[in-house]
Design goal:
By secondary structure, this protein is α/β, with parallel strands linked by helices. The protein folds into two domains: 136 residues, Rossmann fold (3-Layer(aba) Sandwich); 151 residues, no CATH class. Helices cover 35% and strands 14% of the residues. The chain contains twelve helices and ten strands. The strands form two sheets. The chain has a five-stranded parallel beta sheet. A five-stranded parallel beta sheet has the order 6-8-9-10-7, with helices on both faces. The longest helix is centred in the first third of the chain and has 13 residues. The radius of gyration is 21 Å and the shape is globular. The termini are far apart.
């Protein structure tokens, strides 16, 4: 995307416990060079915080999270869902480490600038400036070095979930039983267009398989969550979501991206491990229980059935 696409150059994601440093040290230096989005000035009053965060991320060419224990405790849960769903956020992430903290696996793949020592901060700030100014190569959505690799999920074409999604508990429970049962490698869900196959699998993948919040949806009652949730030890080592509805989403492009992702960026032969790849709302899963040798990929496939006229 061109710079004109974005209202801001960078959005600062931080904990309010760190506001003195962020607003007093970091913000003035960034605003000398860039258009900066920050909550205390730019978030809309009366709007849920997660919606404000989504808006800020989508309106900014880069997102700068300030890593501290407080950020992980208060901000990470909401930010994780946005990070997972948005490829452009992952490619445009410019993280800084302000205080020592143990990063979740999803964040360890990203190189951060080290602001832990006060005497190093000016030099580290110039690294941040360089990262924000750096242009992404055209077409980098499938080739940038910052693209996610396992254990990060890779949603190449995030699904635009409509409002008022509800129910589908029986279907979600059925998918979870398939994923964890280890009997069949392929699950095909076939129905006419508009029946909600993609919406169902999108919610199931985020909420039940990955345990992530779904923006705009209320949490399940505890008994529903228990029935539909995939146990943590049965979750796949990776998730690749792909939709062939997109104009550029050819089968050749899918194969290239699938090989890049499941190989961990290493195009040489690899065996073992559990992978999930989602095609049009499809999610492959962990190997069958007790399987010997290299793990088998398992696939969920959502298809639209053709309907002939009279």
């Amino acid at each position: 995307m061109s710079d004109e696409t974005f209202e801001y150059d960078v959005f600062i994601s931080y904990s309010h416990d760190d506001k003195e440093w962020v607003r007093g040290w970091l913000l003035p230096r960034l605003e000398d060079r860039f258009r900066v989005c920050i909550d205390c000035r730019d978030f809309r009053v009366g709007v849920p915080s997660i919606e404000n965060m989504e808006w800020a991320v989508e309106s900014s060419r880069h997102t700068l999270p300030v890593y501290t224990p407080s950020w992980l405790e208060s901000v990470w849960t909401g930010f994780e869902g946005i990070l997972t769903l948005t490829v452009d956020v992952q490619r445009g992430l410019v993280p800084v480490m302000l205080e020592d903290c143990e990063l979740p696996l999803r964040l360890k793949a990203f190189t951060w600038a080290d602001f832990r020592q006060e005497e190093d901060r000016e030099a580290q700030f110039e690294r941040v400036v360089t990262a924000i100014e750096e242009e992404q190569p055209k077409g980098s959505s499938l080739q940038g070095a910052m693209l996610p690799l396992p254990p990060q999920s890779h949603f190449v074409h995030p699904y635009p979930l409509q409002q008022h999604f509800t129910g589908r508990v029986a279907e979600r429970e059925m998918l979870t039983q398939w994923l964890t049962g280890g009997r069949d490698d392929v699950f095909a869900l076939i129905a006419i267009g508009g029946m909600g196959k993609s919406a169902l699998t999108w919610v199931w993948t985020l909420r039940d398989v990955l345990g992530l919040p779904v923006p705009g949806l209320a949490n399940d009652p505890p008994e529903v969550a228990e029935r539909c949730r995939v146990p943590e030890d049965a979750r796949p080592d990776g998730v690749l979501w792909w939709s062939f509805y997109e104009a550029e989403a050819s089968f050749e492009a899918f194969l290239d991206e699938a090989v890049r992702y499941v190989s961990g960026g290493d195009m040489r032969h690899r065996s073992g491990g559990r992978w999930v790849e989602a095609r049009e709302g499809a999610v492959p899963a962990c190997p069958a229980a007790g399987a010997q040798g290299p793990a088998r990929a398992r696939w969920f496939r959502a298809r639209t059935a053709g309907v002939r006229g009279p």
